[in-house]
Structure formats: structure tokens, C-alpha cells
């Protein structure tokens, strides 16, 4: 996921001033009897729902692993910071975790923006940074094509979601024309929109309307009226739940009955509160997994999560959980908790069975795995299909 990066220059300036006098904390291994892992998440602020869900999955995985003997006998010790859904806080959190707490790796952040704010630090400090849900390509590969050596992700990237959504619209819903309504200030939304448009039009579909909004908008009537005037068969909204919920509610109230579709940015219980369960009928999302998937491994996880928290796990719960197990697998293959060795083994990950798919890490540190399409029915996510990467 990707927050707008308008504050990144400020964060980067702060980093430049702080790095000069800091030691390479990530080179230090944890104490012999423990494996210190930093957790840098949005536990408060605008997208706290994502960070809190990731935290629950992370905590469950750590509890399970420690109960089973830890990683080669080492107990995982999480050290948490709340980045408050803020780029500068994410930057400061990474510095604290590496230089003061001496962690061997950092899990986080939830959004691409808050992850990118840590990437320079991770590379300079030679400390693994693993984002569970940062889907923007530039988390692991810079705009100039240079690989961020210490940055990895558990989630698939934005273009894959956009491609899946377009193919689902064309092949499953038999859509011939569509509208795109995206957050103009979000690289996450723009990347998804571009991938959807490219795939949809290449398959013979027509884009009849392209409109935009800005995060924190609350009145979408003017743009929705223009979209309605084009009479699209389908509306693609690659955004976050805060605005999407209001958009869908207002769209249904003005009589737009076409199916809507988005991506993992919709995945929050608050979406139902904002949009209304009935208004969400005939809407779809691409996501990382479904708790209704009959796969035995997934159902075992769902049962364990329900026992721990009394509710069914969402995709962010699953991604947080998988991130710990992905790190565990690499650390065990490395035979030590040194970040350099963990980085080398993460890059070699192949056919690792996790909750959100069977994962192989590619040359750009992205996981190759399947995506899931879900449908909202009376406020609940219903498993539709699973799409494998091509």
C-alpha cells in the first residue's frame, strides 16, 4: 500500500543529518538467547486499522514460534514503535530500532510511504527491512532501477493487483467499458489505476471516464455525477477505505448501481461502517488471501487466530503473521541472526508455503505468489477465486 510521499523530502533531510554520527547497528547480532525484531507500524493515525491488524498477526506468529522453541533455540523478542501513520515518525522509529535497540531486522511499515521512509536507513545500516503490505514497486527498486539491497516485502506489488482486477472485470464479469476513480495524490492509487487501464484496454475494454479525488475529501457528488453521466458498466476505485467507503455510499445514494472494484486498500472493517453493508453489495476487491479459502493450512491459521482473538483474521492479520514466518525461515537457513546473512537467505527464498501463498522471492525482492478476488455480500467478504501469477 502506498501513502502519498509529499513529506518524504523532509524525512530524507532529517535522515541525512542523523546518519553521519550513527553506527551500523544492523550488523550487530542479538544476544545469544534472543532474536530481536523491530516492529515499526501505524498503530495510531490515519491508517491505524492496517497497522493494528498487522500487529495482531505478528504477535500470534511470535507466540507460536517461541512456544515451539524459537528460532534455533533463540526466543523472538519484538521491539515495537508506533510511527503514527507519519513519514518522519517512521524514519525516527527505524533509527531508534537499529541504533538504540540493536534489532536484527525490522518488520514494517504497513504502507509503502512509511516503508520508503525507512529504506535509506535500512540500506545504510545494513539491516533487513521487511514490509508486510507495502505494495508500491519503489519499496524494493528505486525509480532509477537500482535494487534496495536490504528491503523486502511479503505482499505482491500494485501492478499485479491492477492486472488481476482488469482481467476479472473482462473475463468474469464480462465488462466492456469502465470508469476509473483514483486518489490523484496517492502513488498507490495511480499505480493500480495505470495497471488496470493498460490491461483492460489491451483486452478490448474501453475506459469511458477517468476522475480523481484527494485524500480527506468527504463530498464526492460532483465527480460521481460526471461518472454517472458516462453510464459505465463498472467502476474501478483503487484507494483506501476512508474515502472509498464514503464514495460507495454516495454513489449508491445517487443511483449508481454498477459494480465497483478496488484492491487491498479497501480491506478494513471500517469500510462497512462507512459505506453500509447493503451499499457494498456487488463490489469486489483483489486481496492477499481469504479466510474462506478451503486450503487446510489457511483453515488451521484461521482457527488459531479465532482462538487467540475471537474473530476471523483479515488479510493484514495474515500478512503480519506470514512476515514473521518468512523472516524465521531465512534466519534458520542462515544459521544466525546477523542481518547480512538473513538478507542473503531472504533473497534465496523458494516455494515457501505461507498463509498468503507459496512464496518465491524474485530478483527485485518481491514475492511471486497468487492473488485472491473477494466479493462483498451483506457486509461480509466472500471468496470468489484465486489468481496465480503468469
Overview features:
single chain, 390 residues, alpha/beta, seven-stranded mixed β-sheet, five-stranded parallel β-sheet, 12 helices
Would you write up a description of this structure?
The model is unreliable at 2-26 (pLDDT under 50). With 390 residues, this protein is α/β, with parallel strands linked by helices. The strands form three sheets. The chain has a seven-stranded mixed beta sheet, with helices on both faces. It has twelve helices and 15 strands. Helix 1 packs parallel to helix 3 (87-100) and helix 8 (241-253) packs parallel to helix 9 (269-275). Helix content is 42%, strand content 19%.
Question: What's the N-to-C terminus distance?
Answer: 22 Å
Q: Label the structural class.
A: alpha/beta
- Rg computed from alpha carbons, rounded to a whole number of angstroms: 20 Å
Q: What is the count of DSSP helices, taking H or I runs of 4+ residues?
A: 12
Strand order in the largest sheet: 7-6-8-9-10-14-15
**Quaternary structure classification:** single chain
- Outline: globular
Q: Average the pLDDT over all residues and give the rounded result.
A: 91
Helix content: 40-55%
